[in-house]
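hi! just following up on the protien thing from before. the input was this:
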Amino acid sequence: MDLSSEYVNMCRAAKEIQEHEPGVGDYVIHEKDRTDYPENVKIIGEYLKFGSPNNYKLVTFGGIEIATSSPINEYVWLPTQDQLQDMYPLGWTKYDEMCRKMYNKWSVLTGRNNFTKEQIGLMVVMKDICHKEWNGTEWITL
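and the predicted 3d structure came back as:
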């Protein structure tokens, strides 16, 4: 799982996917946590909701409390590779093909070859579903 600051920033800026409500097993980071990303990312082990969207409790698998009664929109969801694949409407085969094409495109454009599967997967989902492209700092409408 990519816990890099680059991926966190990509996810934070991808407002369209942030409509997902975090659940058990999801990776999240509090909106205010902007440094030491890997240390601040939490995996939700228990998600208890008590009636309203602002009345819940998040704890890790180890039982460490993440938050109690904070607005859920204060957390940035970091989708895993399989969650990104599940979002893609044309199936896994087409998703894999589009990821290869996106990886090749970005490798040529940037001279980098160290993009993670999550970064490339998010680029594919945002391009094909939300019609946006990552420019290195933000998602721009195509």
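The chain has five helices and seven strands.
The mean pLDDT is 83.
cheers
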